[in-house]
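Bug report

Summary: structure tokens for Gliding motility-associated C-terminal domain-containing protein differ between web form and batch submission.
Environment: batch mode, default settings.
Steps: 1) Submit the sequence below via batch. 2) Compare with the web form result.

Sequence submitted:
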Amino acid sequence: MTENGCVALDSIQVIVIDCSLPPVPLIESNNSVETSIEICPERPVLLQIREPGDWTYQWKLDGSDIPGGDGDTHYASKVGKYSVTRRFKNSELCRLFSISKSVNLIPGNPPIIDINGNNIALCPGGSIDIETTANESYTYRWLYEQNPNIIGSEASVSVNEIGMYQLVVTNEENGCTSQEKFDVKSDTSTIPTPTIYYNGQTTEAIAFCAGETKMLEIQNPGDWVYQWYLDGILIKNANSAALPLSKEGFYTVEKNYDAGKHCAGPATSKPVEVVVFDSPEAEILRASEVLCSGNKLDLEAQANDSYNYTWQFNSKILAETGSRLTVSEGGFYQLTIIDKQNNCSNRDSVFIAEEMIAVELPDKIIIRRGGSTILDPTSSSSAQDANYLWTPSYGLDDPDALKTKAFPDQTTSYVLVGKTPGGCTAADTTEIIVVDRIYIPDAFTPNGDGINDLLMVANGKELVESINIYNRWGSLVFHSENYENPWDGTFHNTKVPSGNYTYIIRTSIETYKGSIMVLY
């Protein structure tokens, strides 16, 4: 309005736009919202926006815009983090936008195909099974040459034609696919005939002695499979390039490829005849393995005119060359027998233990009646556990003991027998003489009248060990051992003077001293 009251009018249109933040888009694949998806190089992943609506979009990879990625779908072929922004279509009026959560595309594991495509050979007129490792998550497509038809859908396939084959395997969990081509060729291989060697030489026949170890072998065996036969019969577990021999007969060997590698059948060697000679029987026969010291023992083997015999004692060769050897000392004996017809040998050995035992007793022992004595023999033995026995046992304290007390009431002969564990024995005898006390007279009359002419000592023959008689000056006028010859009253064949003479009589029990009168 002007000062004079004039009024002017005009108008303007004000447009009010709702510019709230667009809803956050959700990325899905195969109708499922995922945060991580495996991707295969040959198979892009389709990313879609759930409920795309009337918006504009921009896809991003690792935060950067993807050229041309402005639709509500996107085929992702690279690994990385994918996201999408949502804007109003009229971005000049409202510039607000929202961005989705990232979807991480990671490399997917392709299936593994483990066919050895360079060594597949088909036998003429035959078939061969080709396989790869089976996996429940895999699908298989076997293709032949340019034929689009699938010839197999399992982990293995049987083929009967040569040519180029292809296997396509898909991992259904991530969609990744692997493929491999392989050429099936015709197998025209052959196997060289094997040759059997013995001691580095080819041979048609060998002979050896039983018990010896001999070998047949294949030289330069290479990468082959072998099977040995005896008289045409397969020998179990005999499938190496060498064969130890134990039986006679005709031996052959088959040479072959590993199972399934080639079509050629096995090649068989020429036979080798093996003869096994029996070794001579070598057994040392003996009555005992214990030799009693001082005795002899026969060692004997089977006698045969075709045999040579060699005896050894403690590793020293003996002069005896027959089948029997008489030995007189203990030790290690060995016999080697050689058959002169085939030179086969055998041996046996034996250890002969030598045992010794000895006992020694006095010829006699004198005791007074009612008395006793200790039987204590001198003994020696190579065996600590030798046993002893006295006979008779009458009048003995312990007849099984080496040393024992004896108290017979009459004269008795005792025998002691010692025995070693090996059966060697020794024995000795002693006589225990039981006597009454000796009696020495006071006087005797050696006058030649035949009465009381000798000094007679009662029981002296059994008891007296020695007797000495002295004159009054102490000179020895008579001496006798054991008193076998009584004194006749002479000295140097001359009658001694009458008078008193002193005597000393020794017995095994005691010594007697006194005097005796010589009267005429």
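Above is the batch result. After comparison, the two runs are identical; trailing whitespace caused the diff. DSSP finds one helix and 49 strands in the chain. The chain has six domains: 27-107, 121-186, 197-277, 285-352, 357-435, 443-518.
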